């Protein structure tokens, strides 16, 4: 049996709703759940194969998107949140008890500062933007996937209509490079 990429991807992708304006995320604790309220849909939602993003049990990939940080508020059991790695660019706030990541925030100077990283699957509401692409695909090898399985993994993404990248999508890579260039005072050539 093929390994699960992610429950939201394995059986084909369900489109979100452009009029959807957010909802509540809950951790996996049976009681006293951490609750985060989002007043926005996610954008740039994607599968991430990196080792740092939270993945549901049995899945090779995380599904993670961004929302403006002003759209994020912790509305219950905030005291259970802890930052997984204080040195990381993305400060991932996880539930101490169940390990689920509720939101990841960037505090340092970075092209994505101002955006929080969230997993819409932690919400029971429908309408969240569907995954748009798969990033950090080759990173799953670092977590034990056999390199020989990679063709199958990429083919599966392709079969559900998702492009695969080994870092991020061209749009996001361009944003990162634009930020880097502007910081360095680079003047762009005229078109
Ligand atoms: N190959 C590495 C890649 C890690 C990585 O660079 N992750 C990306 C995608 S989430 C990132 O932006 N990391 C910044 C951070 O985690 O702070 C791994 O799997 O651990
Ligand atoms: Zn929890
Ligand atoms: Zn990641």
Automatic annotation (TrEMBL):
UniProt keywords, alphabetically: Lyase, Metal-binding, Zinc
InterPro entries named among the record's database cross-references: CENP-V/GFA, Formald_GSH, Mss4-like_sf
Biological process terms in GO annotation: formaldehyde catabolic process
Cofactor binding, note field: Binds 2 Zn(2+) ions per subunit.
EC number: 4.4.1.22
Functional pathway: One-carbon metabolism; formaldehyde degradation; formate from formaldehyde (glutathione route): step 1/3
Gene Ontology molecular function: S-(hydroxymethyl)glutathione synthase activity; zinc ion binding
Keyword field contains Zinc: yes
Catalyzed reaction equations: S-(hydroxymethyl)glutathione = glutathione + formaldehyde
Residues annotated as binding Zn(2+) 1: 27, 29, 95, 98
Top enzyme category: lyase
Location of the CENP-V/GFA domain: 20-166
Positions of Zn(2+) 2 binding: 48, 50, 53
Cofactors named for this entry: Zn(2+)
Reported function: Catalyzes the condensation of formaldehyde and glutathione to S-hydroxymethylglutathione.
Family designation: Belongs to the Gfa family.
Cross-referenced HAMAP family: Formald_GSH
PANTHER family: CENP-V_GFA DOMAIN-CONTAINING PROTEIN-RELATED, GFA DOMAIN-CONTAINING PROTEIN
Protein name: Putative glutathione-dependent formaldehyde-activating enzyme
UniProt organism field: Penicillium olsonii
